Amino acid sequence: MSFAPSGFNKVILAVLHISFLLVVFCVASRAQNTFVPVPTQFIAALAEPGAKTGTGAESWGLWTIDPGPRGVHLTRYAQLLENGSIAKAGWKFDSSDWWLDENGLIMEHPKYGMPPGRYMVTGDREVTTILTVHPKDSSGKQRWELAKDATIYDVTHLRCRSARYKPIANNSACSPAAAPRDQFRVPPGAAMPIVSGCNKQDYTVLFIIGIEN
Q: What's the rounded Cα separation, in Å, for the pair 124 and 54?
């Protein structure tokens, strides 16, 4: 995405993270629940920007480790294939189902389906709130809701863009090699580029900074 900042941005995000942790404790105290601060985790969510509650969390993705530094840039796709489709970070590229971030990094899959629970989430902007993800119902659907009248847009990290690409009818042309490199970096909030021969699904990125104990 790449989620890993560098230089001055690391200092800024470190200060922001400390501020967010203070919010975790304040909000959790008012709610009489205990939230444990965690190293930032990343949700790939599918929901309308204005949604405050809904179903479908079973189709969301979760990266418990920042996938950005573990990614492979499009310019190194050939080397990735030469290495048996195994990235240096140890994950395996799947040509039938692959992810890109806003910088043109090929990323490992998230874990699909959100574990039920309550999460302190933010978009690294103005709003930090609680996301509740319910267990799957009898049909396999998972409900979710945000607290304090927050919307998905409120807790979206706009600079992080991510999309999942799958071949159209087993079209072998759907490949990172076909990705239009001149369209990266993708502007904050913009849609990810279309890749010839692929179906594309854009996801919204939320940061998890605390989990209910």
A: 22
Cα(102)–Cα(191) distance, integer angstroms: 9
pTM of the entire structure? 0.83
Contacts of 10 (CB under 8 A, 6+ apart): none
Name the pLDDT band for 169 (thresholds 50, 70, 90).
confident
Give the whole-angstrom CA distance, residue 178 versus residue 90.
Answer: 24
Residue 164 preceded by cis peptide, ω within 30: no
pLDDT tens profile 123-144: 999 999 999 999 999 999 999 9
146-to-8, 16, 47, 119, 132 alpha-carbon distances in Å: 32, 21, 12, 10, 6
Q: Would you mind telling me the total number of residues written for the chain in this entry?
A: 213
